[in-house]
Write a structure and sequence with these properties.
With 200 residues, this protein is of the alpha+beta class. It contains 3 helices and 11 strands. The radius of gyration is 16 Å and the shape is globular.
């Protein structure tokens, strides 16, 4: 199986019983699927939409990312909807395909990069999965052992990028980003995933 190490840090808006922000890291025959999902609004209805998206993504984990987002769009029409960013990693060929709808920030930091040096930022397309879907276009880029992918929902300020380190363990990195950059006025989620092995 492909090897990945990841960490997740979350913040629940005070007064709410659960977060509307959820994540998925799923290793399957086809590779690794990583997603950060933000249910629209907050509270139970947002959480319900995000959880439904996790189930839909897990059920189709081997599908291309555009098909997965379309699957979510169809399956979430009766919910509040979600925004999400997701990446599919093919460790055999060392490639990553990623796509974002809404405002879940995504960045890729290369192994050995200096602090705050981000190689790629995910191009986000405005829209809501489940209600207003933009034209979908995924980007494909090479990925290598030691590269780190970070997804952060909009409860996290975008300046977190300047604090990133390619050497920090993923869970510690996620905790630090949340602690320093959480807005505290919305649910928040940070997912940090590092590729620790490539199949050859």
């Amino acid at each position: 199986m492909p090897l990945i190490e990841y960490g997740v840090a979350t913040f629940v808006l005070p007064g709410q019983t659960e977060s509307g922000d959820h994540h998925l890291v799923c290793c399957s025959q086809g590779g690794i699927l990583i997603a950060a999902i933000d249910g629209i609004g907050h509270g139970e209805e947002a959480a319900a939409a995000a959880k439904a998206a996790v189930s839909l993504l897990k059920a189709g984990a081997d599908e291309p990312v555009i098909s997965l987002v379309q699957r979510c769009h169809e399956g979430l029409r009766l919910t509040r909807g979600i925004v999400l960013s997701l990446a599919s990693i093919d460790p055999v060929h060392g490639m990553m395909t990623w796509l974002g709808v809404g405002n879940v920030q995504g960045v890729l930091m290369r192994a050995g990069a200096g602090q705050g040096v981000v190689e790629q930022e995910l191009l986000l397309r405005a829209g809501v999965v489940g209600s207003q879907m933009p034209p979908l276009q995924a980007a494909v880029l090479p990925i290598a052992q030691g590269d780190t992918l970070i997804f952060a929902t909009d409860g996290v300020r975008s300046e977190f990028v300047k604090d990133l380190s390619a050497l920090e363990p993923p869970q510690r990195a996620a905790d630090k980003i949340l602690e320093r950059y959480c807005r505290k006025n919305d649910d928040a989620l940070v997912l940090v995933a590092r590729l620790t092995g490539i199949q050859t």
